[in-house]
Amino acid sequence: MAELKHSIVKSNESAAGPDGVYYQFLRHLPESCLHTLLKLFNNIWTTGDIPPSWREASVVPIPKPGKDPSDPSNYRPIALTSCLCKTLERMVNDRLVHVLESRNLLSKNASIQLKKSAFQLALHT
């Protein structure tokens, strides 16, 4: 449960993905719902069966700062993905970094970079 709570607390206030779930919603879940969510994550971890909606993204064009918004080339795409999926990815990433560090399989610089970056595992079924 501590891993789940830590992953939710570490999340930023990004927009919801196609499933419409916001981090703010996850932060206010009662303990009983967090237990249910943890059961779901454990089931996904065990079976490798990721919900199809978690593989989807809504792509939104965002204007580049200081550029003419009437020019389509002055936009960059942002992919909005499921906050639930990103929470699970963060948990997997934290576990992976812990195992790699505890077995001295990462250089100090690589370890720091993995913790700082927006590193996400690509989960494939």
UniProtKB/TrEMBL annotation:
Keywords: Nucleotidyltransferase, RNA-directed DNA polymerase, Transferase
Name recorded for this polypeptide: RNA-directed DNA polymerase from mobile element jockey
GO molecular function per UniProt: RNA-directed DNA polymerase activity
PANTHER family to which the protein is assigned, alphabetical: REVERSE TRANSCRIPTASES (PTHR19446)
Originating species: Plakobranchus ocellatus
